[in-house]
Amino acid sequence: MIDMATNKAQAAPVNDTTINIASVSLAQPLEDIADELGRSFAENGFAVIRDHGIPQELIDRAEATSKAFFALPEATKRAYAIEGGGGARGYTPFGTEKAKDANVFDLKEFWHVGRSLPEGHELAEFMAPNVWPDEVDGFKSTYTELFSAFETAGLRVLEAIALHLGLERDFFAPTVADGNSVMRLLHYPPLGPDAPEGAIRAAAHGDINTITLLLGAEEAGLELLTKAGTWHAVDVPKGALVINVGDMLERLTAGKLVSTTHRVVNPAGQAAQRSRYSMPFFLHFRPDYLIEPLESCVDEMGSESAEPPISAHDFLMQRLQEINLA
Questions:
Q1: Which of 220, 225, 250 is nearest to 238 (CA)?
Q2: What pTM does this model have?
Q3: Which of 319, 199, 308 is nearest to 247 (CA)?
Q4: What pLDDT shows up at residue 164?
């Protein structure tokens, strides 16, 4: 299963309200927001983006389409679970994914949409063809459009990061061109009495990829682990994107930008009786991109923070093996 997360250490569930996560408009000139974003990624690994350019109509359509799919009968959904595909495409049933070192599975089911490459493309060996459910009208067209919109927004965020790092504005464009990015449609069902003891919607983990763009985080539950070892609830305006740094970008920047542990906790009261839906987009480097720590970041962070160069594909496979998914 190609999952974009690795498990990281748990901490006491104490909410920390002292940290400041940047919340900026992507409609502003990037030069005006680059350092605010960069500081937030360096300190917390997270930021919130407004005015990201993904049309609200598309977001609403995608949410409705996701709900329609997950409402299908279990047998219908399971017909799209690809045996031996590692979850890279199609459906992954409830109770399948379990974080590294976790004793119980996460309380979620999901669908993966990846990049569609033309036949004979040089990177086709790294990316399986997508599958599309026949039972939901507009599924393929909606998520093909949303995948493209996520990429556009993600590249703009990467431009801001490049400016903050003192790089050319378009530094990241060739590194992510035809990258192995994955869009996940997530459904956390209502919490039933038969949920295993200790199970939560998403156990504490860090993302493997370059950056993650998350839609649908307005519902309470997303928390990040602060450097002080406490949990901080991420407050998100409706329609905004939550952006977080992944392990690949942390490695590239020699730890200057941090991949922060986060989780989705179970709600209390009436919220526990309703479903939670979200759509993260795991933006990846090209599989053949060599992740080699940037010299300027090594100079700043110290040579001990630099890890050996590794291709994005090998890094991904290494991490998936660590969580028993490859």
A1: 220
A2: 0.90
A3: 319
A4: 98
